[in-house]
Amino acid sequence: MKTLKTKYNCSFTVLLISLLLILPCPGVLKGAQIPSPEDVVARKAALPTIEDLTGGKVKKGDIIDKNNVDVVKEWLTPGCLEAVNQGMVLIMGTNSGCDEGVPKEFVELTAKNKGKAVMDTTGAVYYEKIGTPWPGGRPYPEPKNGLETMANMKYGIGVDDFQARGVLRFVNKKGKVYKSFGLESTQIWCSGRKYQPPLGTVPEYEGTLFRRTSMLTHPIEIKGQGQFSIRYYDDAKKYDTGFTYFPAYKRTLRISSTTWQDNIAGSDLIYGDSQGFNEPFVDWEFKLLGTNYVLLPEHKSPFPYLDDKGNVDPKVKFDLGFKWPRLGWAVFPMHVVEATPKIKHVYGKKMIFVSSDPYTNATDLCELVDIYDRQMKLWKLYCPHNGDWVKDKGFVVPFGVFMADLQAQHTTSYWFKIQPNSNLRPGSACFKYLLSHGR
Amino acid sequence: MNTNFLRKGKTWLLVVLFLFVGISSARAEIELWGEKLTLTGFVRHQLVYNMGEKNPYNTNPNVLAVPPGSDTGYDVQDDKNWCNLSRSWLITELNFKPNDTFRLYTKARFIWDQTTNLDDDLYDYDAITLSTPHYGSTLRAGHDNHATAEIWEIYGDIDIGNLWLRVGKQQIVWGEMVSARILDVVNPLDKSWHFQWEPEEFENIRIPQWMIRGVYNIEQNAIPWLEELYVEAFYNPGDIVPTNDPQIGNAYRQNYKLEAEWGGFYNLAETHDRHGDDEYGCRIGYKIGQFAGTFNYASLYHDDAMTRSGPFMGPATVVEDFYPSVDVFGLSLNYAFDHPMSTVVTIEGALTKDEPWYDNTSGTPFPAIDFVKKDTFRYAINFQRFSNILPKQPFMNVVFQYQGLIVEDNDDVKWTPGPPTTAGNKNNIVEDIANDAFVLSLSQDFAYKTYKATCVTIWQPDGAYRINPGFKYSPGDNWRFEIYANWWGGSAFDGANKGYLNYFYYQDEIMTRITYQF
Predict the structure, then answer these.
(1) Closest CB from B202, B219, B386 relative to A262
(2) Partner A contacted by B336 (CB < 8 A)
């Protein structure tokens, strides 16, 4: 009897304490129902909103700035948090639906090939056996380590090719745009092609992953300065090949492997920052730290940020002059990868937030990147201007990116229009391109 | 009157300023018809201050029959000039691209040279000279000694699949070397105004010619082992233009004028220019693994006039200028080392069959002049690396190069028509390995390309050097301010051998350049 009485007393006490806690904080109860990011990635649960995560404290449309950032800082990367403290303002936006970022064919291909990816010791991904190129789709929908996560970026891109055309704007500490460069680039995948014939691997390009060209289009001082590079299927076995064209000399020169680390036209972006991470994987080590909910620019913007000519819509608001575009931000389950260079590098490490399979986009899986200097101090924030939805093709692509130097408080804003899947021939990215498009 | 003049002047100025304000608020390229027709360009003024000496080639060399200081018209300059060049430019580039297949490009130049207006010590030479009087092909309506308007380049591009064609007045550049033209042999140079190896200036030094050029990109694996294979060919149907040398009086004059009209004792009877003849060439580019290279061939005419005299007859000696044909066989090969070397190594070589050289044998006693043909081999090896020298700044482009020249039977030839080496004139010696030089080129951008420092140093082991530092300030989209220096020195061959850099000792200078680009 005594034991039973004690048990009842104990249960009553627990109930009382629980009620005392729950009544003033109803969000705690709701919080208990928040699914884990892993379950969301595994499609076992729906993606929660920021309202769900904050227990209703923050709702869609709310403005977050440095005065109230504490309420969402749990879901901001250190780089984003620092940017907010430096003046960036966030609008709480709309979550994406499942599988909205890539076309149906891609989702089907990923499902069809699930479990068939094999990884070489070099990190190269093959289909069922080493040597057979990966046919397309995401090789590791639920990655278990850093290499698998990054392999999704390298071998599981959501397009067959893209052309991007835009303007790099240099924004100083006061938010003034003081310099701009026109830049266009083209990237054509030779393997893992999903939509445009030839599917899979292009004959005669078996050892090539993609071919890329880029060209500065203005001002006249550098107009026509271009690069042509080749990324091989296994960059550990065959390192990149690159050439550049100098319009003043009117000649093509071979370029060295450190070019990935050099700044694009002197901007805050280095060539290896394209798509968040575009350097040869052989030079880096990747460690998967986990899967977290992260706030990042929403995939579908409420209106097109750029017009057809690539001009920024006047409805886009900026804070601190033209430094910080005020974008809609939403919650996504992101794989957090710590990337550390194995070679002498300008960066100490990159914390890469890689989009997970159900809530992804077509071109830029590395959606947010916090970059640390060699002293491991937070240096830069790479952030896409997400929001372009190519509705007829079912793609989500960014309207550009910005790279903020959080130490120097200088920003490079690269607004561009992406045209995915234009059925470009791999052979069109070549020497001839440099000559014909150069000045 | 004055008030009206000023008012008119101000109105004009206001219109110009209004245009520039309009331009600066727009994107850097002006769209005249959407993206199909665009205009870009710059306005520039450059001023070159002479830190060297009076140009010796604007005075009597004393070895001639005419005594120094005599009133023959040959002694065109008595005192050192302070201004080597003062020149204003308006350059416009017009692009018409109605579709992805076709493009029309023109580059027009408006030049106003004030050098002799500013410096009274200079003889009033023709600053806007042409190397030949074939005005039609130059697209220059005409000029006076100080100003001209011309279409420097005009061409149409056709890009269809693997084939790209360019037809028109254009520059073709082969090779990858700095400060050396090993394979860059197609177009001649305009040395009449400022022969500095500064990239942007070099665009306006290499003379465009009317040519058709095609590149055909060969699909992968068409030939086993060879990747990125392409064939390029050009054909010049007759627009052959030689080197444009500075006129007498020009601060950049590089040799004596020995004709009788200038006080010398040669009479130029004829110039056998090659206008109307044709030139052609081709190259094949390829890649094997991490090696990439080209094989080149060109059938050309020598860019510099070679003089041949009849028997020496004192002031009545007759000379003729020739531009002999040459065949150039070349190759380039590069290899990119990855980490940790991260260096590109490039070698280049060009064998010129039957290149004309002045005859050094006893058969042509000085001052009679003759030339002979000798096989000539030019070569260079180049190391290039982008290096992160300064933390959190763009990479420094570091280039190191060695280059040289080998001439068949070098003892039988000499550099200039001057006295033979057999007569003890060591300045005319063509060595076993001549012209050899080490080049170090450094280029570093700072602060988002707002500042740029460069330095090109060339050292010739025989005892000559050139140091060319530069600094550029680009605060925004439009304005650029630049300053460069040129120092030439050394003691090789008493500064009298044109193959060595100290020959140009009198050209020490500082150049400033202000540019407004749009």
Answers:
(1) B386
(2) yes
> What's the DSSP call for residue B69?
T
The CATH number given to whatever domain includes residue B477 is 2.40.160.10
Mean pLDDT in residue range B395-404: 95
| Contact status of B101 with chain A (Cβ, < 8 Å) | no
Per DSSP (E only), the strands in B265-420 are 266-272, 279-288, 291-301, 306-309, 317-322, 325-336, 344-359, 371-387, 396-407, 413-414
Strand order in the sheet with B317-322: B266-272, B317-322, B306-309
Closest Cα in chain B to A268: B448
CB contact under 8 A, B517 and A220: yes
Domain count, chain B: 1
Per DSSP bridges, beta strands A328-341 and A90-92 are: parallel
| C-beta atoms of A431 and B338 within 8 A | no
Q: Which residues pair with A246 in a beta bridge?
A: A251
Residue A297 and residue A320: Cα distance in Å, rounded? 18
B102's tokens: 């076709």
Q: Which domain holds residue B41?
A: 4-517
Of B289, B343, B476, the CB nearest to A179: B476
Q: Token digits for A249?
A: 């000399």
Amino acid identity for residue A262 in this structure: D
Q: At the topology level of CATH, where does A160-436 sit?
A: outer membrane lipoprotein receptor (LolB), chain A (2.50.20)
pLDDT for B1 beyond 50 = no
Chain B from 365 to 424: CB within 8 A of any A CB: 384-388, 391-392, 394-395
Q: Give A189's pLDDT tier (boundaries 50, 70, 90).
A: very high
pLDDT for res A127: 97
Q: Which two tokens stand for residue B7?
A: 């008012």
**Partner-chain contact A220 B475, CB within 8 Å:** no
Q: Tokens for A114?
A: 């699930």
Residues in A closer than 8 angstroms to B394, CB to CB, are 262-263, 266
Surface-to-core class of residue A178, CB atoms within 10 Å of its CB (0-12 exposed, 13-18 middle, 19+ buried)? middle
Please tell me whether the peptide bond between A197 and the residue prior to it is cis, using omega within 30 degrees of 0.
Answer: no
User: How many beta carbons lie within 10 A of that of residue A398, not counting itself?
Assistant: 26
Distance CA B416, CA B371 (A): 10
| B337·A251 Cβ contact <8 A | no
Contact criterion met (CB < 8 Å) for B27 and A242 = no
B228 touches chain A (CB under 8 A): yes
Check residue A27 and give its pLDDT.
39
Query: Which of B77, B80, B86, B78 has its CA nearest to residue B124?
Result: B77
Average confidence (pLDDT) over A365-383: 97
Does B11 contact chain A (CB < 8 Å)? Answer: no
The predicted pLDDT at position B10 comes to 37
DSSP letter, residue A312: B
Where does residue B311 rank: exposed (0-12), middle (13-18), buried (19+ CB within 10 A)?
Answer: exposed
Residue numbers in A near B395 (CB within 8 A): 258-259, 261-263
Of A220, A259, A263, the CB nearest to B40: A220
Percent of chain B at pLDDT exceeding 90:
65
The pLDDT value given to residue A12: 53
Taking CA atoms, A7 is separated from A3, A15, A405, B95, in Å, by 6, 12, 60, 89
Q: Does B29 touch chain A (CB under 8 A)?
A: yes
Q: Is A393 exposed, middle or buried (0-12, 13-18, 19+ CB in 10 A)?
A: middle
Query: pLDDT tens, A44-84?
Result: 999 999 999 999 999 999 999 999 999 999 999 999 999 99
Instruction: State how far the Cα of B408 lies from the Cα of A350, in Å rounded to an integer.
Output: 58
Residues B127, B517: Cα–Cα separation, whole Å? 24
Contacts of A36 (CB under 8 A, 6+ apart): A45
Span B32-40, mean pLDDT? 91
